[in-house]
Amino acid sequence: MFTGIVQSTGTIASIAPAHEGARVIVRAPQLDLSDVHPGDSICVDGVCLTVVALDAETFAVDVSRETIDSTAGFQPGAEVNLEKALRLADRLGGHLVSGHVDGCGEVLRFEAVGESWLLEIRCPEGLERYIARKGSITVNGVSLTINRVQGRAFSINLIPHTLQVTNLRHLGANARVNLEVDLIARYLERLMGGVD
Protein backbone atom coordinates (compact mmCIF):
# COMPACT_ATOMS: atom_id res chain seq x y z
CA MET A 1 0.00 0.00 0.00
CA PHE A 2 1.01 3.59 -0.68
CA THR A 3 -0.28 7.08 0.13
CA GLY A 4 0.19 8.93 -3.15
CA ILE A 5 2.68 11.31 -1.50
CA VAL A 6 5.63 11.21 -3.90
CA GLN A 7 8.97 10.83 -2.10
CA SER A 8 11.21 11.49 -5.09
CA THR A 9 11.36 11.43 -8.84
CA GLY A 10 13.66 9.17 -10.81
CA THR A 11 14.45 8.34 -14.41
CA ILE A 12 13.87 5.21 -16.45
CA ALA A 13 17.50 4.35 -17.18
CA SER A 14 16.85 1.31 -19.39
CA ILE A 15 14.27 -1.22 -20.50
CA ALA A 16 15.27 -4.66 -21.76
CA PRO A 17 13.12 -7.66 -22.75
CA ALA A 18 12.86 -10.22 -19.94
CA HIS A 19 10.45 -12.97 -18.85
CA GLU A 20 7.78 -12.15 -21.50
CA GLY A 21 7.86 -8.55 -20.26
CA ALA A 22 10.71 -6.21 -19.47
CA ARG A 23 13.44 -5.60 -16.92
CA VAL A 24 13.31 -1.90 -16.08
CA ILE A 25 16.17 -0.08 -14.38
CA VAL A 26 15.16 3.08 -12.51
CA ARG A 27 17.81 5.63 -11.55
CA ALA A 28 16.73 7.21 -8.26
CA PRO A 29 19.63 9.12 -6.65
CA GLN A 30 17.30 11.22 -4.46
CA LEU A 31 15.33 8.25 -3.06
CA ASP A 32 16.76 6.67 0.10
CA LEU A 33 17.21 3.03 -0.89
CA SER A 34 19.11 2.06 2.27
CA ASP A 35 16.07 0.30 3.74
CA VAL A 36 14.90 -1.29 0.47
CA HIS A 37 15.55 -4.97 -0.25
CA PRO A 38 14.75 -7.31 -3.13
CA GLY A 39 11.08 -8.25 -2.79
CA ASP A 40 10.02 -4.82 -1.51
CA SER A 41 7.47 -2.74 -3.40
CA ILE A 42 8.03 0.69 -4.91
CA CYS A 43 5.31 2.67 -6.67
CA VAL A 44 6.67 3.90 -10.03
CA ASP A 45 4.40 6.49 -11.67
CA GLY A 46 1.41 4.90 -9.95
CA VAL A 47 2.38 1.28 -10.64
CA CYS A 48 3.25 -1.03 -7.73
CA LEU A 49 6.40 -2.93 -8.75
CA THR A 50 8.62 -5.43 -6.94
CA VAL A 51 12.32 -4.64 -6.59
CA VAL A 52 14.44 -7.53 -7.93
CA ALA A 53 17.89 -5.92 -7.60
CA LEU A 54 19.35 -2.62 -6.44
CA ASP A 55 22.43 -0.60 -5.60
CA ALA A 56 22.90 2.81 -3.94
CA GLU A 57 21.23 4.82 -6.73
CA THR A 58 19.27 2.41 -8.94
CA PHE A 59 16.78 -0.39 -8.61
CA ALA A 60 15.52 -3.00 -11.07
CA VAL A 61 11.97 -4.26 -11.49
CA ASP A 62 10.39 -6.82 -13.80
CA VAL A 63 7.33 -5.46 -15.59
CA SER A 64 4.83 -7.75 -17.29
CA ARG A 65 3.70 -7.18 -20.87
CA GLU A 66 0.17 -6.56 -19.53
CA THR A 67 1.46 -3.72 -17.31
CA ILE A 68 3.49 -2.15 -20.12
CA ASP A 69 0.51 -2.30 -22.49
CA SER A 70 -1.98 -0.83 -19.99
CA THR A 71 0.06 2.00 -18.46
CA ALA A 72 1.95 5.13 -19.54
CA GLY A 73 5.44 6.39 -18.76
CA PHE A 74 7.72 3.39 -19.25
CA GLN A 75 10.10 4.78 -21.85
CA PRO A 76 13.87 5.21 -21.47
CA GLY A 77 14.65 8.70 -20.20
CA ALA A 78 11.17 9.32 -18.79
CA GLU A 79 10.94 11.00 -15.39
CA VAL A 80 8.81 8.95 -12.97
CA ASN A 81 7.27 9.58 -9.56
CA LEU A 82 8.51 7.26 -6.80
CA GLU A 83 7.12 6.19 -3.44
CA LYS A 84 8.28 3.36 -1.19
CA ALA A 85 5.62 1.13 0.35
CA LEU A 86 3.73 2.44 3.38
CA ARG A 87 4.61 1.20 6.86
CA LEU A 88 1.66 0.77 9.22
CA ALA A 89 3.14 3.40 11.56
CA ASP A 90 3.59 6.01 8.78
CA ARG A 91 1.42 9.07 8.31
CA LEU A 92 -1.26 8.71 5.68
CA GLY A 93 -0.80 12.12 4.08
CA GLY A 94 -2.66 11.36 0.86
CA HIS A 95 -5.16 8.49 0.59
CA LEU A 96 -4.97 4.69 0.42
CA VAL A 97 -3.32 3.77 -2.89
CA SER A 98 -2.78 0.20 -4.08
CA GLY A 99 -0.55 0.92 -7.07
CA HIS A 100 -2.95 -0.96 -9.36
CA VAL A 101 -3.60 1.31 -12.33
CA ASP A 102 -7.24 1.28 -13.45
CA GLY A 103 -6.57 2.89 -16.81
CA CYS A 104 -4.83 5.63 -18.73
CA GLY A 105 -6.39 9.06 -18.87
CA GLU A 106 -5.82 11.76 -21.48
CA VAL A 107 -4.87 15.30 -20.48
CA LEU A 108 -7.36 17.74 -22.00
CA ARG A 109 -5.99 20.92 -20.48
CA PHE A 110 -3.06 21.98 -18.32
CA GLU A 111 -2.77 25.70 -17.73
CA ALA A 112 -1.82 28.27 -15.12
CA VAL A 113 -4.65 29.82 -13.08
CA GLY A 114 -3.14 32.45 -10.81
CA GLU A 115 -0.36 30.76 -8.84
CA SER A 116 -1.86 27.29 -9.29
CA TRP A 117 -2.42 25.10 -12.32
CA LEU A 118 -5.61 23.57 -13.68
CA LEU A 119 -5.29 19.96 -14.83
CA GLU A 120 -8.23 18.52 -16.76
CA ILE A 121 -8.24 14.82 -17.66
CA ARG A 122 -10.63 12.52 -19.53
CA CYS A 123 -10.81 9.06 -17.98
CA PRO A 124 -11.42 5.82 -19.89
CA GLU A 125 -15.05 4.82 -20.29
CA GLY A 126 -16.36 3.01 -17.22
CA LEU A 127 -14.12 4.73 -14.66
CA GLU A 128 -16.26 7.86 -14.43
CA ARG A 129 -18.62 6.19 -11.94
CA TYR A 130 -15.79 6.11 -9.37
CA ILE A 131 -14.87 9.79 -9.78
CA ALA A 132 -16.62 12.25 -7.47
CA ARG A 133 -16.24 15.94 -6.72
CA LYS A 134 -14.00 16.35 -3.65
CA GLY A 135 -13.05 12.69 -3.92
CA SER A 136 -9.54 11.29 -4.30
CA ILE A 137 -7.76 10.05 -7.40
CA THR A 138 -4.18 9.07 -8.15
CA VAL A 139 -2.53 10.54 -11.27
CA ASN A 140 0.91 9.07 -12.06
CA GLY A 141 1.11 7.98 -8.42
CA VAL A 142 0.17 11.39 -6.98
CA SER A 143 -2.77 11.61 -4.56
CA LEU A 144 -5.01 14.47 -5.71
CA THR A 145 -8.43 15.92 -4.92
CA ILE A 146 -11.02 16.21 -7.68
CA ASN A 147 -12.55 19.69 -7.97
CA ARG A 148 -15.04 19.25 -10.80
CA VAL A 149 -16.56 16.37 -12.78
CA GLN A 150 -18.35 16.60 -16.12
CA GLY A 151 -19.06 13.27 -17.81
CA ARG A 152 -15.74 11.48 -18.24
CA ALA A 153 -13.74 14.69 -17.70
CA PHE A 154 -12.58 15.86 -14.31
CA SER A 155 -10.39 18.72 -13.15
CA ILE A 156 -7.82 19.12 -10.41
CA ASN A 157 -6.05 22.16 -8.98
CA LEU A 158 -2.29 21.69 -8.62
CA ILE A 159 -0.34 23.84 -6.18
CA PRO A 160 3.25 24.92 -6.99
CA HIS A 161 4.72 22.45 -4.45
CA THR A 162 3.11 19.49 -6.24
CA LEU A 163 4.57 20.63 -9.55
CA GLN A 164 8.00 21.10 -7.97
CA VAL A 165 8.27 17.60 -6.53
CA THR A 166 6.49 15.47 -9.18
CA ASN A 167 6.66 14.86 -12.91
CA LEU A 168 3.19 16.39 -13.40
CA ARG A 169 4.90 19.66 -14.37
CA HIS A 170 5.81 18.07 -17.73
CA LEU A 171 2.21 17.35 -18.72
CA GLY A 172 0.54 18.89 -21.74
CA ALA A 173 -2.57 18.37 -23.84
CA ASN A 174 -2.95 14.79 -25.15
CA ALA A 175 -0.45 13.35 -22.65
CA ARG A 176 -1.39 9.96 -21.21
CA VAL A 177 -1.43 9.52 -17.43
CA ASN A 178 -1.87 6.53 -15.13
CA LEU A 179 -5.08 6.70 -13.11
CA GLU A 180 -6.08 4.80 -9.99
CA VAL A 181 -9.56 5.51 -8.68
CA ASP A 182 -10.38 5.57 -4.99
CA LEU A 183 -9.95 2.10 -3.50
CA ILE A 184 -12.92 2.49 -1.16
CA ALA A 185 -15.24 3.41 -4.06
CA ARG A 186 -14.36 0.17 -5.87
CA TYR A 187 -15.03 -1.98 -2.82
CA LEU A 188 -18.26 -0.18 -2.01
CA GLU A 189 -19.56 -0.84 -5.51
CA ARG A 190 -18.73 -4.53 -5.18
CA LEU A 191 -20.36 -4.76 -1.74
CA MET A 192 -23.48 -3.03 -3.07
CA GLY A 193 -23.78 -5.67 -5.81
CA GLY A 194 -22.29 -3.65 -8.65
CA VAL A 195 -20.30 -4.95 -11.59
CA ASP A 196 -16.73 -6.35 -11.35
Secondary-structure map with pairings?
Blueprint: E1 8-18, E2 21-27, E3 41-44, E4 47-54, E5 58-64, H1 65-70, E6 79-84, E7 103-113, E8 116-122, E9 136-139, E10 142-150, E11 153-158, H2 160-165, E12 176-181, H3 183-191
Antiparallel strand pairs: 1-2, 1-6, 2-5, 3-4, 3-6, 4-5, 7-8, 7-12, 8-11, 9-10, 9-12, 10-11
Rg from alpha-carbon coordinates: 16 Å
Residue-averaged pLDDT: 93
The proportion of residues forming helix, as a percent range, comes to: 10-25%
Termini gap: 21 Å
Question: What structural category characterises the helix and strand content?
Answer: mainly beta
- Oligomerization status of the protein chains: single chain
Number of strands: 12
Biggest pleated-sheet summary: 6 strands, antiparallel, barrel
Number of domains: 2
- Placed side by side, the strands forming the largest sheet appear as 1-2-5-4-3-6
General form: globular
Helix and strand run: EEEEEHEEEEEEHEH
CATH architecture of the largest domain: Beta Barrel
CATH topology of the largest domain: Elongation Factor Tu (Ef-tu), domain 3
* Name of the level-1 CATH class of the largest domain: Mainly Beta
Amount of beta strand? 35-45%
How would you describe what is shown here?
- This protein folds into two domains: 8-84, Beta Barrel (Elongation Factor Tu (Ef-tu), domain 3), CATH 2.40.30; 103-191, Elongation Factor Tu (Ef-tu), domain 3 (Beta Barrel), CATH 2.40.30.
- By secondary structure, the protein is mainly beta.
- The two termini are 21 Å apart.
- The longest helix has 9 residues, at 183-191.
- The model has no long low-confidence stretch (mean pLDDT 93).
- Helices cover 11% and strands 44% of the residues.
- The protein has three helices and twelve strands; from the N terminus they run E-E-E-E-E-H-E-E-E-E-E-E-H-E-H.
